[in-house]
Amino acid sequence: MAKKCANKDGNTVNCTCTYEPCPRKGICCECIQYHLGMDQAPACFFSKEAERTYDRSIENFIKTRK
User: Fold this and answer.
1) pTM of the model
2) pLDDT, tens digit (0-9, with 9 covering 90-100), for 10-52
3) Cβ-proximal residues to 18 (8 Å cutoff; 6+ apart), any chain
4) Distance between CA 12 and CA 28 in Å, rounded?
């Protein structure tokens, strides 16, 4: 469950995640913890094109960064 974050408003402005109902949008520490717990990378690690695929796998991250 998302907690209050003093930086949420500023973070949300720069958040590249296109998954709109995400409860972690703008709460970077929770987002990173959530995705790493699922062996994924958060949206902000990907290009706009790669992020739109919703494939947050580490393998896709490595592939898109080469």
Assistant:
1) 0.81
2) 999 999 999 989 999 999 999 999 999 999 999 999 998 999 9
3) 43, 51, 52
4) 9
Encoded tokens for 3: 């907690």
Residue whose tokens read 């709460």: 27
Q: What is the per-residue DSSP string for 28-64?
A: HHHHHHHHHHTTB--GGGS-HHHHTTT--BHHHHHHH
Q: Write out the two tokens for 2.
A: 């998302």
List the chain domain ranges. Answer: 22-65
The two structure tokens encoding residue 59? 């393998």
DSSP state of 22: -
pLDDT classification of 1: cutoffs 50, 70, 90: low
